[in-house]
Amino acid sequence: MALKRPYSNSDKMAASIVSQFMQSSNDAHRYHLQITGPGSYAQHMAVGEFYDAIKGFADSFAEEYQGFTMKLLKIEPTPAQEIKTKDDIVNHLNNLYINIEKTQEVMPCSALVNTLDEVKSMISSTRYKLVFLS
Ligand SMILES: [Fe+2]
């Protein structure tokens, strides 16, 4: 008999952040392919690492959440965002960071909070490279 946990209030937040991670990867990837001008190589590399990592976290966090709650998430699409400048990508990262913090507040266990901490660490590292190295 599978273990089922009644944490439905966190399901929507978890599904939303997974969808945001997936869309963030696509939005950042499109930007990655359009970066040009001074500092563009460092930015191209930093955004390249980011879109790859965030896509991986979408999958690993969703699997972990589903395995903990023994429920499948209903992952709705997140609208695409136009990222055209370095300021846009930094704002995108800031907003994602804030949404992760809100999600952490309702997570049912510390392991899931910790996985989201890893995403925040990766975002901060990306933000550092974008602001200071490009
Ligand atoms: Fe690339």
What does this structure look like?
It is a single chain. The chain is built from four helices and no strands. With 134 residues, the chain is mostly helical. It has a single domain, classed as Ferritin, core subunit, four-helix bundle (Ferritin, Up-down Bundle). It is 72% helix and 0% strand. The mean pLDDT is 94. It is elongated and about 55 Å long. Helix 1 runs antiparallel to helix 3.
Order of helices and strands: HHHH
Evaluate the radius of gyration: 16 Å
Shape: elongated
Which ligands does the model contain, each kind named once? fe (ii) ion
Task: Sketch the major β-sheet.
Answer: none
| Low-confidence regions | none
Short description:
The protein is mostly helical and 134 residues long. It has four helices and no strands.
Characteristics:
Ferritin, mainly alpha, 72% helix, binds fe (ii) ion, 134 residues, elongated, 4 helices
What is the topological layout?
Layout: H1 8-32, H2 40-69, H3 86-104, H4 110-132
Fe (ii) ion (FE2) binds next to loops.
